[in-house]
Amino acid sequence: MLNVGKIEEGFVLDHIPAGKGMSVFYHLGLDHMDCMVAIIKNARSGRLGRKDIIKVECDIDLLNLDVLAVIDHTITVNVVKDGEILEKRTLVLPKELKGVMHCKNPRCITSIEQELPHIFYLADPEKEIYRCKYCDEKNSEKM
Ligand code: CTP
Ligand code: ZN
Prior knowledge:
- It contains 3 helices and 8 strands, in the order βαββαβββαββ.
- It is mainly beta.
- The protein starts with 9 loop residues before the first strand and ends in an 11-residue tail after the last strand.
């Protein structure tokens, strides 16, 4: 088993469905940040068979984790401070997402006014459906 050391401060994103680790990496914007990141792919897991794990060593106030629930709410967020797990956060679908999904409707105002932020609202929490705040187009992006 591949071993990655414990972190001092940051997040351990555990139980990410196998194969979704890179999606989490990009959606959190970790490619643009200079904190230390370890991505473990296909770790053995009793519950899921295989899972991905991401460890991020960073200031815990720096990262917005809203998008995680949209990718998959089975992800466990362990918040680590001073080398100890401070909190295991449960994920809830955000009511609104800004700059995460992009409206594909060519007639939407966001297609015409390029500088407008893309904002989606949670239209159906049961079915996990998000719609564009401007034109009501359903999100079709795969997270
Ligand atoms: N971890 C870490 N750095 C720390 C503390 C914990 O990287 N300072 C990691 C552990 O290596 C583990 C994850 O955080 O991958 C969760 O730790 P823990 O809650 O102790 O493990 P489990 O009990 O297996 O978690 P769960 O019950 O959520 O499966
Ligand atoms: Zn739109």
